[in-house]
Amino acid sequence: MEQVTIGVISLDSSPTENYTLNTAETRQSFQLSGKSEVNTIPGEKYEELKMKYIRQHTKAVVLCCLISFGGMILGWDIGTVGGVSIMPSFNNAFGDQTTIVSSAKELSNMKRGLYISIFNIGCALGGIMFSRLSNTVGRRVGILTAIAKYTLVLTVQLFSNGNFILLLASRFVLGVTVGAISVLVPMFVSESAPIKIRGALVVVYQLAITLGILFGNILNYMTNKHLSMVDPMNNMAWKIPMLFGYLWAAIVAVGACITPESVHFLAKIRNDYESAKISYSIMNNISVFDHETIDYVNNLLVKQDVYNENDLRNHKFEFLYGKPKYGKRLLIGIMVMAFQQLSGINYFFYYGTSLFKSVGIKDTYATAIILSSVNFISTFAGIYLVESLGRRSTLIYGSFGMFICMIFYASFGTLSLRKDLLSFVLIIVTCLFISIFAITIGPVSFVVVAELFPTRTRSVSMSICSSFNWLVNFAIALATPVIINRIGFLYGFFFAGCLLLATGFEAFFVPETKNKTEEEIDYMFQNNLKS
């Protein structure tokens, strides 16, 4: 069994991934296998070694964080679109009916729902379209292509004054580019990050989404207060939030330009042995001639040779019929991503401003800032939890906790309480709900889906899972304004039922992928193991 020494930490190249600590006082070993019973190092020492490992991979952390800023693009849209859709200037520009109390135009509930939701249809298609491109030109070029198209379509949207059809068309194509980014970024990070901090770095993508939502809510508050309330017809109130999209796109583009191509893509798809070694050495801060680099890339190439011998390379439906159990993995991924949306999280983020306005909260933009702040701050705990508690347990506890919150939310919402008391209770329960989401199924769903699939089918399988996520999101975004108008807070019981189903599904079907290599995950599915 070969060992590779990195500083004072010795990394065992066996599948169990042992670390050995050498000091003058003691010599102890521990495993990062996700099972606390095998950890023979005290908690403080364990965390100290883990932080040392992270510091030794600072370059990989920085590069992965830059790429993960792609989540900011999606978060920015979620954080701004709901507030923008109720701004007087936006409604005056694109509305087609007048209000009862004034001659000002406004969007109908159906048009508002269509404006918000058509973006999700584009996202569903974008992931599938760009996944095949990334298998041909690489993950980096795929991301850069999506970013270039995003900036072009954003420009069209900014100049769609008064033309609702053009606005919808640009929203749809914008969704195509964001859908591509939402698949390619987690996949690229998962394939490039050092294995022991892979989960935490994929969670950074979700953190960027929450940051985008928070910043978007803050900017909506500022533009509404200083522009819309001063001049209700000032179109800059809704255009300024859109303009910031250029900044987030530029940051992701820089990250994609300076980060090496995924070692998995180079080795398993392009069969470029030398480039794969260089990529791995950069992202793991070791020499290209180090035994760890050579062994890791050789292992990837050996598995690729096995695939070629079995003629799976040209199998059109390998993502369904490949072994071991690719079809089952795909179904698990689809359900995990669908349940993420069926939790009801975007019920709050898309329509929170109009929802809380109905219970007497006057400054709904400020309320949105509170909710998105809770979302952003809580996600930091998710970065820790995904590596300590593991993927599967985090999903189970999160879904059940959100189920309890949604039961309370729907129950209190339907009771005939005083508006001041009702608004206070709903905000508290909603904050708790969002906090649990941000710590658990929000980030961990992306991690699980990024780790479930082998490199050969990862882009296609992840894009299919992402598409189901977006399609469910579309249905919720489109139907919510109409449903809220009909049954109000009773709608919450629907999401509570979905969360209860999610808890059961995750307990019985989702495997634990923490610190597992691609080969170990294959072994788990081949032998029907949960961990």
Automatic annotation (TrEMBL):
InterPro entries: MFS_dom, MFS_sugar_transport-like, MFS_Sugar_Transporters, MFS_trans_sf, Sugar/inositol_transpt, Sugar_transporter_CS. Residues 63-514 form the Major facilitator superfamily (MFS) profile domain. The chain crosses the membrane at residues 60-79, 114-134, 141-159, 165-189, 201-223, 243-267, 330-352, 364-386, 395-415, 421-450, 462-484, 490-510. SUPFAM superfamilies: MFS general substrate transporter. It is a multi-pass membrane protein. Belongs to the major facilitator superfamily. Sugar transporter (TC 2.A.1.1) family. This is Major facilitator superfamily (MFS) profile domain-containing protein. It comes from Candida glabrata (strain ATCC 2001 / BCRC 20586 / JCM 3761 / NBRC 0622 / NRRL Y-65 / CBS 138) (Yeast). The gene is HXT14.
